[in-house]
Design a protein that fits this description.
The structure is a homodimer.
Chain A: H1 2-7, E1 15-20, H2 36-39, H3 43-49, E2 53-58, H4 68-75, H5 87-94, E3 103-114, E4 117-120, H6 128-141, E5 144-145, E6 148-154, E7 159-165, E8 183-184, H7 196-212, E9 221-228, H8 236-239, E10 244-247, H9 251-259, H10 271-281, E11 287-292, H11 294-300, H12 304-315, H13 318-323, E12 328-332, E13 349-354, H14 368-372, E14 377-380, H15 384-391
Parallel strand pairs in A: 1-11, 1-12, 2-14, 10-11
Antiparallel strand pairs in A: 2-13, 3-4, 3-7, 3-9, 4-8, 5-6, 6-7, 12-13
Helix pairs in contact in A: 4-9, 5-9, 11-12
C-alpha cells in the first residue's frame, strides 16, 4: 500500500463519503425473505444506483463482524487488523473524551462485591443518574495516585471510563475484571516490564475506590478492563493529501474521525444538522464524511420496520448529496446490522460509487443482491478510498 | 505463489494469451453512456464469449492506474509491486535497446538552460530529427567518462536514452532533473554509498554535454532521470515451465517480454504480421503472447470512435485464434484506456478464458458489464497465469 503515497496528486475535486451505519441487512422470513433495503421505498437511492457502479465491501475479513472501530478504520483506508483501537480508547471516544498521548483509558463497571467475590458485574444495572453520583463521589476523593492524575467520567447505567494521565504509563495490562459473576476480584497485572508502575497505580486506585464505595448498597466496587492508549495513526489528511472533515453528531464517530485527524466541527444534534453543515462547509474541504446513525440503531433493536423507515428517511437526503455535484460520491455502510440478527454482522456493505468515469453496471436498485452483481465486485472496504481517489483523478500512474 | 512451482507439470498443451492493449473502457456520455466495447460491432468476440468464462482482472490494486510495465508483469504472473521496472529501463526497452547486467539507463531530456536555470525542460519540443542530430554530436564527443562507457540513443522530440556501461555501477541515484521549469539545475546524488562513483560519472557527463551544447539555440543542456538497472527476474519459461514466445511489433512490448525471458522474434511491422508469425510458429512453443497496440493508442488519443473501429478490426482475427485450437485461449487487456479519460486508467480488464474445461457463465457479449458478472469474478491479473496453467492441465494437485 505504500505505493499509493507516491502516486498522490492534488487537485480541486471533492469526495463525499456518506455512511449509513449498519446499512446492510439480511432476508427476514416475516417480510417475504426480503432485506430491509429490498422492502424500503427509496426512489432516490435506486435512481442513483442506475447511474453508478455497485459492489459489496468487506470491512475486515470474510465472516468477521466488526465493531464500529475497525469498520470505520477500514472505510478510511486503514488496515483494521494492523491498527487496533483498544476498548478503553473506544469508550473514551464514545463519551466524547479526547485522549492525550500520556493517557491510558479503561472501561469501568460499577459492581456488587461480597467478601472479595464479584456477585454482580453490573451492580444491578444502576441508573445513569446513580452512576453520575458515584463518579462524582469518587472524583472528589481521588484526584491522583502516586502523581498520576485520575480522570473519571460516567457512562450509561453501570458503565464509566477511567483515564490515568501521566508520563511513562503503559497500557500493557491484564483486565482488573474477572469477566464473570461469582468469581474473586482480580488485580491488573503488567504484561510487560514497562507496565509494572501503571499496574501498581491502577490497583491502588481500585482499592481506594472500593474503600470509598464500601457502604454503597449495590455499587460497592469497581472493575476496569480494556486498558488502552490512543494508537499511533498517520493522520488521514496527510496519508491521502485531503483536507478532510467529518460531519457526525454521535460522540463515538466524532471521536473516531478525530483520532484519524479529520476535523470534527460541532454541527448540531441531528442528521439534518449534519447535512446543513455539509452544504455550508462544501467550499472548505476536499473530503467529506457524513454519518447517519439510525439505520444501525434500528437494526440493533431488531426492528425491521423501523430500519426500513430509517432507510426511507435517509433516502430523502440523497438528492442533496447529488446536487452538491461531488466529483466522487460514495454511499455505503460501515458494517451491516440486519434486524433479524439484532446486532452488527459480517455481511458485506452495500456500496455505491458515482462519478463521471466510474464505469457502468446493470444495477437497477440499491440492494444487497444488486450490489453482489455490481461492477465493483466484492472487495475489502480498505480499498474504497483508492477507488475514490482514482475516480477523483488524484492518483498518478504507477510505473511507466 | 511458491506452491505453484512444485505443482508444475509438462504436457503438450498450447496456451494463447491475446492482449489488446488498453482494451477496457468507460461509459461515454456522447455514446449513450456506453463503452467502446459496448458500441463496437464484434460478432466474433461476442460469439466466443458465449463459449467462454468471463471476468475482470485488476492489474495492480484497486484504483491503481498502471503503466505498461507493471500491467504486463502482472499478466505474466509476476507481482508488479514486488518487481518494479525503473523508468530508465523502460525507456531503453521502448527504443529496442537491450540492457546488459552492467548497464544503468536513464531517461534524458534536451532542455533550454539560462544561467544555470532550466527555462524549458523540453527545449521547445525540438523535432525528432533535431534530437538525432544532437545525440550524434554528443556521441562523437563523449565515448566514455572515467572508464565508464556512455551510450546515447535518440527518442521522439526532446527525449533520449543514456546508458552508462561499466562494472560496479549503481542505479541508486536521485534525478538530475528539477522536474519543473524555472528551477535551477540539480546534480544526481547518490542515494547509497555504493552509488557515489556512478553519481560522479553521471554529473561529469552532464557538465561535458552541456559544454558541448553550449551554443545550441534551444537544446543547450541535458536532464537525466529515472536511473535504473534491469531488474533481476526469474525467466518466465523457467518459472512456468513453458516454451514461450512473444509476438509483438512495438519495441516496448518486445523489450518487456524479452526482459521476462520470452523469445522475441522479429515478425514484421503490423498485427497482421504478428498473426502470420503466430500461425507459422504454432508448433514450436507452448505459450504464445500476441500484442495488439491500436486499442490503447486510440484510447490515449481520447478517440472513442477510433477505438471502436480498432476493436472491430481486432475482432476479425478472433477466428484465427480459435481455429488454431489452443488448449487455453485468453483474450484480455493489460490495463484499460477509456477514451473518455484519454489515458491509462484503473478500471479492471475485461477478460475472456476459453478452454474445454473452463466452466460456463451467462455472458452473451464481451463487454465490461458482462465481464463484471462473469464466472471468473474480479481478481488480480497476476493469477491469470494460474488459471491458464490449470486449464491446460499443467498443474498437479496440491496436497493429498
Amino acid at each position: 500500500m505504500d505505493i499509493l503515497k507516491k502516486l498522490l496528486k492534488k487537485n480541486e475535486t471533492k469526495l463525499l463519503l456518506v455512511v449509513a451505519d449498519g446499512l446492510g441487512g439480511a432476508p427476514h422470513p416475516n417480510y417475504g425473505y426480503r432485506t430491509e433495503l429490498e422492502v424500503a421505498n427509496k426512489p432516490n437511492l435506486d435512481k442513483l444506483a442506475r447511474h453508478s457502479v455497485l459492489g459489496l465491501t468487506i470491512p475486515v475479513e470474510h465472516g468477521i463482524t466488526p465493531g464500529s472501530g475497525p469498520a470505520h478504520l477500514s472505510l478510511f483506508g486503514y488496515d483494521p487488523i494492523e491498527i487496533q483501537i483498544g476498548r478503553g480508547v473506544l469508550e473514551a471516544l464514545g463519551i466524547g473524551f479526547h485522549l492525550g498521548p500520556n493517557d491510558v483509558a479503561a472501561r469501568g463497571n460499577f459492581a456488587t462485591i461480597h467478601d472479595g467475590v464479584v456477585v454482580d458485574r453490573r451492580a444491578g444495572r444502576i441508573s445513569s443518574e446513580e452512576c453520575s453520583r458515584l463518579i462524582k463521589k469518587l472524583s472528589e476523593h481521588i484526584k491522583s495516585i502516586d502523581g498520576v492524575e485520575v480522570i473519571l467520567r460516567p457512562g450509561k447505567e453501570h458503565r464509566f471510563v477511567a483515564i490515568f494521565r501521566g508520563e511513562g504509563l503503559s497500557d500493557k495490562l491484564s483486565d482488573a475484571d474477572p469477566q464473570k459473576d461469582h468469581m474473586p476480584l482480580v488485580e491488573a497485572k503488567p504484561l510487560a516490564a514497562e507496565a509494572s508502575r501503571t499496574a501498581d497505580v491502577v490497583n491502588k486506585f481500585i482499592r481506594k475506590a472500593n474503600e470509598i464505595l464500601r457502604d454503597e448498597p449495590q455499587a460497592n466496587g469497581v472493575l476496569l478492563r480494556g486498558f488502552a492508549k490512543s494508537p499511533k495513526i498517520e493522520p488521514f489528511p496527510e496519508k491521502y493529501q485531503l483536507r478532510a472533515v467529518a460531519l457526525a453528531v454521535y460522540p463515538m464517530y466524532k471521536g473516531l474521525t478525530r483520532l484519524l485527524g479529520l476535523e470534527t466541527p460541532d454541527v448540531g444534534e441531528t442528521f439534518e444538522d449534519e447535512v446543513k453543515a455539509l452544504k455550508e462547509l462544501w467550499n472548505n474541504y476536499d473530503f467529506f464524511y457524513i454519518h447517519f446513525k439510525d439505520t444501525d440503531k434500528a437494526g440493533e433493536d431488531g426492528d425491521f420496520e423501523l430500519k426500513v423507515k430509517k432507510i426511507e428517511y435517509f433516502d430523502k437526503f440523497v438528492p442533496v448529496f447529488v446536487d452538491l455535484n461531488p466529483d466522487v460520491l460514495v454511499i455505503t455502510g460501515d458494517h451491516s446490522t440486519p434486524a433479524i440478527i439484532g446486532g452488527h454482522s459480517w455481511h458485506p456493505n452495500p456500496t455505491l460509487l458515482h462519478s463521471k468515469v466510474a464505469g457502468v453496471d446493470d444495477a437497477r436498485f440499491f440492494t444487497e443482491k444488486e450490489c453482489a452483481k455490481g461492477y465493483l465486485g466484492i472487495f475489502y472496504a480498505k480499498y474504497l478510498i483508492n477507488l475514490m481517489l482514482a475516480n477523483a483523478g488524484r492518483l498518478k500512474k504507477f510505473g511507466a
